[in-house]
Design brief:
heterodimer, A: about 190 residues, elongated, B: Alpha-Beta Plaits, two-stranded antiparallel sheet, 3 helices, 4 strands
C-alpha cells in the first residue's frame, strides 16, 4: 500500500522539464482553486499557531503577539516617508496595509471632528473593513480580539510610530463579522 | 448612511442587538428592537449575526471580503438556493 503511494508520489513529482538558472518565473497565475487551497492553508496555519500559543502562554500571548506585530510594523514602515500630520500618516498607513487591510476614519454622529486632540494626545476611530486577521479567525472558528488581532494592533502601532515619530496605541473597541472598530491614540 | 430595518413580527425582543452594539444604535420599544441611531452604525453586522430571529436588515453596508468561505461551500449553497 505504502509502496504504491511512494511510486505514485514519485511519478507525480518527476518531470523532464529543464529549469535553467536564468529561467525566472515571470507569471503567477495558478487557477483560483489552487490559490484557494494555499490561502486556506495559510489561514489555518496562522490561526492554529496563534490558538496554540494562546493555550500555552495564556493571557501573556497577547503581549507577545503585540510586540511581534509592533516590531514588524516598525520594520515595514522604516522606508516610508515620515509625516507629522495625522491625516497624512493615515494615508501612508493605508498604502502600507493595501491589499491586506482596508480602513476608514470614523466618528459618532454627535462628534464634529474625526481627529480629536485631548490632554496632549490625539485620537481617531478607525473602522477596519477588509482584514486578513478576521478572515483567519473565522476560518478556524476562533474568537476575534485575541492574540492574532493583537498582532494587527501592534503592526499598525509600529507603522504609525515609525511614520509619525510619536508613541501610539491601538485599542480594540468592537469586533464584528463585517467590520471592527479601533481607536488609534497618539501621544 | 446605513439604513436598518427590523422585521417587527420576527423580532422576539431578546435585546441582544441592544447589548451588543457599541454605538447604542438600537433600543427596545414595546419589546421590539428599534434602530434609534442608525446614523451611528458602522456596518460591523454583529447585530445581524447575533439576532436569533434574523429580524434585521441593513442597507448600504460596505461588504468586506470573505475569503474564508470555501468555493466548495459556495457552490453547494448556490445549488441549494
Amino acid at each position: 500500500m505504502s509502496e504504491s503511494f511512494i511510486n505514485e508520489a514519485k511519478q507525480k513529482f518527476t518531470t523532464d522539464l529543464v529549469f535553467r538558472a536564468e529561467d525566472v518565473p515571470m507569471r503567477c497565475d495558478p487557477p483560483a482553486e489552487e490559490l484557494e487551497q494555499t490561502l486556506h492553508g495559510l489561514m489555518q496555519l496562522n490561526g492554529y499557531i496563534i490558538k496554540s500559543l494562546e493555550e500555552i502562554a495564556g493571557r501573556g500571548a497577547n503581549a507577545v503577539t503585540y510586540r511581534a506585530g509592533k516590531k514588524f510594523g516598525h520594520e515595514v514602515a522604516k522606508y516610508f516617508e515620515k509625516k507629522s500630520d495625522v491625516e497624512d500618516a493615515l494615508r501612508e498607513l493605508s498604502y502600507i496595509l493595501h491589499g491586506q487591510y482596508t480602513f476608514e476614519p470614523w466618528k459618532p454622529s454627535d462628534r464634529d471632528e474625526y481627529i480629536v486632540e485631548e490632554n496632549g494626545s490625539t485620537f481617531i476611530y478607525l473602522v477596519f473593513h477588509d482584514c486578513i486577521v478576521r478572515q483567519s479567525c473565522r476560518r478556524i472558528g476562533q474568537e476575534q480580539g485575541g492574540p492574532l488581532c493583537q498582532t494587527l494592533c501592534g503592526y499598525v502601532v509600529g507603522a504609525v510610530e515609525e511614520i509619525t515619530g510619536r508613541r501610539g496605541k491601538l485599542e480594540i473597541i468592537h469586533t464584528g463579522p463585517n467590520a471592527c472598530l479601533k481607536k488609534l491614540i497618539l501621544k | 448612511m446605513i439604513e436598518i430595518r427590523v422585521d417587527e413580527e420576527a423580532c422576539n425582543g431578546c435585546g441582544l442587538c441592544v447589548k451588543d452594539c457599541p454605538m447604542g444604535v438600537f433600543e427596545l420599544k414595546s419589546s421590539v428592537s428599534s434602530p434609534v441611531h442608525p446614523e451611528n452604525c458602522m456596518g460591523c453586522l454583529s447585530c445581524h449575526e447575533i439576532c436569533p430571529a434574523q429580524a434585521l436588515e441593513h442597507r448600504g453596508v460596505v461588504p468586506c471580503r470573505r475569503m474564508y468561505v470555501s468555493m466548495k461551500v459556495c457552490r453547494m449553497l448556490n445549488r441549494v438556493i
